[in-house]
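Researcher: I need the complex structure. Ligand is magnesium ion. Inputs:
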Amino acid sequence: MAIIFGILLLILICLIWINLHNPNNDEDLLADLPAKVIPKYGDNEDNNWWKQTSVYQIYPRSYMDSDGDGIGDLNGIISKLDYIESLGFETLWLSPFFKSPQADHGYDISDYQNIQPEYGDLAIVDSLIAEVHKRDMKIVFDLVLNHTSDQHPWFLESKSSQNNSKSDWYVWQDGKGDDPPNNWKNILGQISGWNYVPERDQYYYAAFLPFQPDLNMSNPEVKKAIFDMVKFWLDKDVDGFRLDIFNFIFEDQNFPDNPRTLRYLPNMNEGKWLFEDHKYNFHQPEVIEFAKELRQVLESYPNGRFMVGEVFGSHRHMRELLGLKDLDGLNLVFLFDFLDNFEFSDDYFREKTEAYEAFYPVPLVPTYVFGNHDQARSISRLDNDTRKAEMLASFQFTMRGVPFTYQGEEIGMKNGEIPLTEAQDPLAAFWLKLPKWISENTGIIMNRDNCRTPMQWSSETAAGFSKTEDTWLPVQQDYPTINVEDQLLDQNSLLQTYKELLALRKRYPVLKNGALQFIDHAALPKDVLAYTRKNGDHTITVYLNFSEKDKILNADLDEQEKVLFSKRAHIDGVNIELDPFGLLIVLN
Ligand code: GLC
Ligand code: MG
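Model: Output:
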């Protein structure tokens, strides 16, 4: 009995270890990476606009409704451009507004070169682009290249028979008897990635949801159609693209089974999650070539266009996609360390940032992302504490890297509380099958509606988002106290913090291009993070108190030093006093 119990316990411990242990092979990786990269396209010039920019993400459906149908639209966005400009953001990224059945709210496209009527039309897109440029800002669109909607005419034709002009435009395979072609699950891991179609007596592959069939990018005709579409938008003067689930685009053309693994919790370094090692359908070598081909297209246009990839994996995967030796791939990749396993501590922030600096040294640029349309609201990861949100923003806008802000972050919009049963998000249906005690306690965002509730503009009806109260997702109850209009009038609001920080980035280019150096731990009180940014013209020092206690530090400040921005901080002679979650930015 005792022996059996012992063996079971041992197995359990092994399983836990396999799932929680994240092998840290960063050191090997660093040793392996080329010490010096020679940029092919002049990426070493620090004045490339996309290296210095700040990005504001708009989820069009939830930003501003101009025509009272309860759904945000492009005219609504145009009406808010002055607001975004006044905040100081330099680039806008819009989630998809192209023609789409909206089963995944635009990430299921049925025509890449037309606009879903509830958002507007092509003429409105043209004026949106012109209006953004008139304000000296840039605009980036969302490219969903992995898949289309199952209602795209390409797919409708492709699925109709085995012999039609688009029969190879998607990933089709014969089944194995009554079973799918192989054991690949979709990204969410609950169902097979393969979906049977009687007309062809074959299966199509969908990495994400079944209504999002994967394009066959290995087919030169598909690639050409996609490149033509990219050029269509570049010709319209779009400044760049965000690339949706980019390293899922290619699959091994022999379609072998993926190895099984005991790893359930995601280990993205090794491409393992939900008991599957995604060896053959994630980050295939072809995607690196594809990134480079796309880059060539972008480089053939004037004014520096750019791409930022939503890519997953290790830093090595990222560096490969950026172009290992010549930096001739993607311009930027999203780094999600401040979303996953997030910890609000000086050690965590320092450790992650040091890794970013090591893996993305000059002329590379890291990105700082705290939220998006798929993730829990950043302030909800900070106990809804505005002081912490102010610190987060101060950190983000003084880092060496491109900051991405998701709409509503600037006013501290919280997660919504829309139950799974009322969700519009197609992902919610998957999680509904889980018992409540699990679905309510994992901390994963299973209903992305909760970060997509309408933007809170004012204390008027529907938070000023729409003329109707019947909005596509309910407006959050707290809009009378959390809204743009009030925060614009309040000198102490979170919104003002964003404005002042963005203004500092413009006034002191050192915040965009200066070298980053951390001040030694030993010289600082516990829980305080401090660093300098330095270029030939200026040095700026940032102090952040991550604790609930007062902290005093001797900073040897002299007369010349100037406080650029502070919250809950006092200077007393040569000492700096930081109250709980206090912060201070000084020009040395
Ligand atoms: C990306 C998008 C997400 C979408 C999915 C499928 O992760 O950010 O919103 O549902 O891809 O396109
Ligand atoms: Mg509308």
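Model: Summary of the prediction. The CA atoms of residues 453 and 474 lie 6 Å apart.
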